[in-house]
């Protein structure tokens, strides 16, 4: 399972994005299930523009099962807020925090992101240990 960040979603569905070709090649190589979170989708739709072709293609991708959506319940929303406080010096937004919370909940460390600087600093908690994110 691979969690998908906002950057690749924008790049995949906006052909003018500078990372479009690289993200398309990466997506073609992925053989694992893709998941994202509601905060990531909200950010992607906002950045693509709600009435854009890219936004429409992203909606189609999700509706056809190209990517599943993980919903934060109260406990995981609280965990996301904790992560935002923990990484306040970086800083971490809700979309990134929701991906780390999802990684902890779904027992994965793989995140498809073009935001390598931030995710290189983040750690996924497993019990009392912290592990680096595996960037795709």
Distance between the termini: 11 Å
**Strands, total number:** 7
Number of helices: 7
Total tally of structural domains: 1
> What fold name goes in the CATH topology slot?
Rossmann fold
Order of helices and strands: EHHEHHEHHEHEEE
The level 1 CATH classification is Alpha Beta
Q: Tell me the helix content.
A: 40-55%
- What is the correct CATH architecture? 3-Layer(aba) Sandwich
Mind telling me the C-alpha Rg? Answer: 14 Å
Q: What is the CATH homology-level superfamily?
A: 5'-nuclease
Give a structural overview.
The chain is built from seven helices and seven strands. The model has no long low-confidence stretch (mean pLDDT 94). The protein starts with a strand and ends with a strand. By secondary structure, it is of the alpha/beta class. Helix 1 packs across helix 2 (20-29) and helix 1 (6-13) packs across helix 3. The protein has a five-stranded parallel sheet. Strands 5-6 form a two-stranded antiparallel ribbon. It has a single domain (2-135), classed as Rossmann fold, CATH 3.40.50. The chain has helices at residues 6-13, 20-29, 38-48, 53-63, 74-86, 94-106, 116-121, and strands spanning 2-4, 34-37, 68-70, 110-112, 123-126, 129-132, 134-135.
Produce a short descriptive summary.
This protein has 136 residues and is α/β, with parallel strands linked by helices.
Give descriptors for this structure.
136 residues, alpha/beta, Rossmann fold, five-stranded parallel beta sheet, two-stranded antiparallel ribbon, 7 helices, 7 strands
């Amino acid at each position: 399972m691979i969690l998908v960040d906002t950057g690749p979603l924008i790049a995949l569905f906006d052909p003018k994005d500078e990372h479009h070709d690289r993200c398309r090649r990466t997506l073609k190589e992925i053989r694992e299930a893709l998941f994202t979170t509601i905060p990531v989708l909200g950010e992607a739709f906002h950045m693509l523009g709600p009435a854009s072709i890219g936004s429409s293609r992203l909606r189609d991708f999700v509706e056809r099962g190209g990517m599943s959506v993980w919903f934060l319940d109260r406990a995981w929303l609280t965990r996301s807020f904790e992560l935002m406080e923990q990484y306040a010096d970086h800083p971490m937004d809700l979309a990134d925090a929701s991906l780390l919370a999802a990684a902890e909940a779904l027992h994965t460390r793989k995140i498809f992101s073009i935001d390598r600087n931030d995710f290189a600093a983040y750690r996924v908690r497993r019990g009392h240990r912290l592990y680096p994110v595996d960037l795709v």
